[in-house]
Amino acid sequence: MMEWIAALVPALLTEHAPAVLVVAPLLLAAVAALMPEGRSAWAIALVGTLVSAVLSIVVAVDVQTGGVVSYALGGWEPPVGIEFRADALNAALLLLVSGLGLLSVVYALPSVADEIEPHKRALFYSAFLVCFSGLLGVAITGDAFNMFVFLEISSISTYVLVGMGAGQDRRALTAAYNYLILGTIGATFFVIGVGFLYMATGTLNMADIATRLPDLSGSRVVQAAFAFIIVGLGLKAAMFPLHLWLPNAYAFAPNFVTIFLASTATKVAFYTLIRFLFDVFYPDAAFVQASFVWVFAVLGVIGMIAASVQAVFQSDARRLLAFSSVAQVGYMMLGLGMGSAAGISAGLLHLMNHAMMKGALFMALGGFAIRFGVRRISDLNGLGRTMPATAVAFTIAALSLVGLPATIGFWSKWYLGIAALEQGWWWALAAIIISSILAFFYAGRLLLAVWIAKSPEHHGVPARARSPMMMIVPLWILAAANIWFFFDPEPLLALARAAADAAITGAGQ
Amino acid sequence: MVELIAERFNFIVVIILMMTGLYAVVATGNLVKRLVGLSLFQTSVFLLYITLSNVAGGLPPILPADAGYGGEGGHGGDAAHGGDAAYGEAAAQGTDVIYSNPLPHVLILTAIVVGVATLAVGLALVVRIRETYGTIEDEAINRADYAIDSEEKSS
Amino acid sequence: MTPELSLGLALAIPAFAGVLISLLGRFPNIREAVTLVASVLLAANVAYLVSVTGARPELNILDMGGGLSLRFELEPLGALFAAVAAGLWIVNSLYSIGYMRGNGEKNQTRFYVCFTIAILSAMGIALSANLLTMFLFYEALTLSTYPLVAHKGDAKARRGAAIYLSILLGTSIGLLLPAIITVQYLAGSTDFTLGGILGSEVSPLVSSILLIMFAFGIGKAALMPVHPWLPNAMVAPTPVSALLHAVAVVKAGVFSVLKVVTYIFGPALVQQLWAADALAWIAAISIVLASLIALTKDNLKARLAFSTVSQLSYVTLGAMLATPLALMGAALQIVMHAWGKITLFMCAGAIYTATKKTEISQMRGLGRLMPWTFGAFAVGAFSIIGLPPFGGTWPKLFLMLGAIDTGQAILIAALIISSILNVAYLLPIPGRGFYEKPAEETLPKKTPMLVVLPPVITAAGATALFFLIEPIRAFLAPVFDAGVPTP
Predict the structure, then answer these.
(1) So what's the pLDDT on residue B87?
(2) Which of A3, A424, B79, C386 has the fewest beta carbons under 10 Å from its own?
(3) A508: left (phi > 0), else alpha (psi -120 to 50), else beta?
(4) Do B110 and A145 touch (CB under 8 A)?
(5) What is the pLDDT of residue B70?
(6) How far is A301 from chain B (nearest CA, A)?
């Protein structure tokens, strides 16, 4: 399937795929901004995400057949020039970001038409394309400073996108502002760290830094760089307790933005953490080892439980899911903290699974919102009877979040649990289970409202409503993926394992 | 002691600016002042990078008309001297002239652009907040939002 | 027909019936005919499976990487459980038709669809070849019975159903899932293997903790203190209580416990674990305590529910003693109790359909008006108590013999006390029914034939099982006699 799509792409494009997949949406963003109205800008966004998705497949196929793909921008060879570099880990991320980007753009048309004022829609899509391009750039670049630039490209456009929610709820503005402050502090910490690394090694190419660092692991500069980079990226990835920007940003952004961010942005930031921990810093160094156990595993576990507890007590549906996202980031951090191939691949598996389940959940909430203006959990009451198609998909994704069998969420817990036991970390397994039970409670609150609570009286019997087809189809694609990959987890597992191997062996190459 | 400070003068300035900026971000409730603090924080990092590029006794990295390529000028830092400042190891290859490292300047140009963009978006948001809430004080905004929250809860 | 095909059919028949019923919702007669035909086909299929159990057919549905798979395998315990569930499904289908129509229940299509999914899940549990498959169907059974419990849709039903779901899902996620993951990690597999897969390299402490996690994680076994879901599930319509909460769901629970003990730990290992002793005691306490609670309940279905809690712990007790005789007793209890208890529930439903009475104190003298129903009730009660010549005699006998093998004579006392309590809380019902004066002279309306006949059939079955003991024992012998040491 992937090979078949890749074969359709002309050779010239194949050759430059790594660059074009980032640049195309960036250029199209400028075009979209010039469009007079939303619909044509949407078409351009669709083209942009489609091009990137296809080219991501091309890169992924290249990686599968030929190992690491390296592309020198402008013909300047690394380590002097900027390098775009894709191994199995990058390829997995590119597929995830562009695939979910494409799905959410399909979903966007009716949702954006509902929430954004007409004269702002073209600019909205333009900002989205910039953000999308930035995320892809982060996922493929092999240059540390370039990564900072792409992180900021995606972040700044994200602040704009979140702020666009002000048409629905003015709190979006403060959410965007707070996100901007914290996000910029995070990015600046990151760039300080990169500066220190440059100070110590004299290079910015990540692979090149990696070859020089093992001799320097005693250096204080390198250790300071490590601390700054971890804090900076942890902020971007919403690692507990650096997650404070996330709940409001997710809760008040336009639905489409929340869908896109929840399934891609924190994932990309998590990828950068893996990249730096394993492929830039020397993972055998004492301070990196210590950070695995004492930073990532411990904070991951605390985040899994604390954020889940907070989620249980939310009254806003999207805030509830946002806290759940923070908890799910904790699972990934725990996997990362194990530092073993099994742990990282379990973390990455959960990363992909979580993108699918949270994407579906937010899509379903958007579907409810477009018909009934749903924000609070009590607004969901009785929607199982009024919007059954959306409600069933919502239920599937919610059960997946809990981790019941027959959904992919089960494999996340399974492989994380096994990886934890292989480390001898019984407490981690216990934390996973406690967090799952909490997830059962908060997902249960949503499902109780949808299925059991009486719907409010809309003049007697509530009429059946359906969200537009363009919202139902992407939603059901994700919901079906939640079930399909339980029964056929091998593709995802292979992707996660290859990515984890790439992360671990990438060091010092 | 004085020598120690003098040697690291740039870094001390950078750290003071950095802390001032961060403190301003945390301490003030005024949204614009917070952005000012943020900009200060970012600017201190620009200074840090520029400091790195200095090579003792280096010339501005501009090729004289008659000279050839100056080796890998952009590759200044040396592992051995890592702790303090970068010394151009490679600049001396090929010619006798020692150049300062031009790469951080280029990087910082990009970072300045990023900083300006962030500031612009931040200020735009503050303008919108002021339009919607009629204030740019954090506490007043929180009070206004709390009023909505409790209104929603009671309805 | 090959045994493998037949294994697949055991799942396909209810699945197909479920789809058909949901499509035929508008035609009640055809819909109910489909249920009946499906139940007969399934029973025939399972009968065939029982006849080929010796060959141990296997069916691999799909591999999920890393040695994990969705796999089914037929072995005597599973075949026995499948036979009980499938056989009683026929009787219960007849009864459901009478009951649901007789009481004019709403949402009958949803009821029948969920019922078939529940049966499908029970078959999946019975035939699963590894813990992963079992867990999948275990959760499916919980979820598919939830709409059945909440069927009435009023506040009380919703509350009961919420407790039902919380306890069953909570225990399965909180204890069963980590236990399964740990088994996978320790043994590298979750396949059911005769003699167990947990080797001697696993420390007794870990094994003990695992055993406790399984015993409570399988919340459907209703071992105290995770039993409250069962009384709460009694808000469901009586056919649900009869087949699911006296047979399919609860027996799926104790069956899973028995299967884990037999095929994951291995009886030899269980005999040495301190946790098994502790759990045997907890089971004994459950038996007595639940019987005492049953004595205080005036609501008939609530009394029967606590009686079920008590009787289920017999199976757990037998499993934890883990001697050949005790295990045999546990397995027999699954069969005998199913026939007895379903009779009692069906009688309760018949009384409700005829008179709308739910409290025992209102049922004085009703036996004279409903002689068949109360007669069947009496037979069911005798069987539960363990009087010959009714099926319930055998499990108690085997369990007592098993307890003697382990030298824990005090557990025998628990069994005897429980039997006495059974007499105290069950026999007054037919007793008062027959010997006291009825409040009314006639029944308000004629009782449908379809709610009276099924309990009479199952009562006859409970009697017949007394005489069928030898073939059943011989059928199970390969599991329990081979390689199980008698201490």
Answers:
(1) 40
(2) A424
(3) left
(4) yes
(5) 45
(6) 28
- Helix, strand, coil in percent for chain A, rounding step 5: 80, 5, 15
| Low-confidence residues of chain A: pLDDT under 70 | 217, 455-463, 506-509
Contact predicate A150/A138, CB 8 Å = yes
pLDDT at residue B82 in the model = 40
Query: H-helix or E-strand containing C73?
Result: strand C69-73
C66 band by pLDDT with thresholds 50, 70 and 90: confident
> How many domains are there within chain C?
1
Residue B11, pLDDT score: 86
Domain chopping of chain B, boundaries: 1-56+102-155
User: Cα–Cα distance between C62 and A506 in angstroms, integer?
Assistant: 34
CATH of B1-56+102-155, one of 1.20.1560.10, 3.90.800.10, 3.40.50.880, 1.10.287.3510: 1.10.287.3510
Nearest chain A alpha carbon to B75 = A202
First to last CA, chain B: 67
Q: How confident is the model at residue C28 (pLDDT cuts 50, 70, 90)?
A: confident
Which amino acid, one-letter code, is at A262? A
CA distance A261 to chain C (A): 29
pLDDT tens figures, A109-162 = 888 888 888 888 999 999 999 999 999 999 999 899 999 999 999 999 999 999
Q: Pick from B22, B103, B132: which is nearest to A173 by CB?
A: B132
The C-alpha atoms of residue A207 and residue A79 are separated, in whole angstroms, by 8
Q: Is chain B touching chain C, with at least 3 CB–CB pairs below 8 Å?
A: no
Q: Please list the residues that pair with C299 across neighbouring strands.
A: C359
Choose the closest CB to C185 out of A403, A405, A421. Answer: A421
Q: What is the 3-state secondary structure (H, E, C) of A414-461?
A: HHHHHHHHHHCCHHHHHHHHHHHHHHHHHHHHHHHHHHHCCCCCCCCC
Number of C-beta neighbours around residue B4 at 10 A: 8
Residues A156, B49: C-beta atoms closer than 8 Å: no
pLDDT tens-digit series, residues A31-79: 999 988 888 999 999 999 999 999 999 999 888 887 788 888 887 887 7
> For C151, which residue in chain A has the nearest alpha carbon?
A452
pLDDT number for residue B71: 45
Residue span of the structural domain in which C404 resides: 269-487
Q: Do B145 and A174 touch (CB under 8 A)?
A: yes
DSSP A465: -
Return the structure tokens found at A59.
Answer: 């890169």
Write down the pLDDT at residue B99. 78
Amino acid at residue number A167: G
Is B85 a residue whose pLDDT tops 50? no
* Among candidates A173, A176, A195 on the partner chain, residue whose Cβ is nearest the Cβ of B52: A195
Residue B88 or C175, more confident: C175
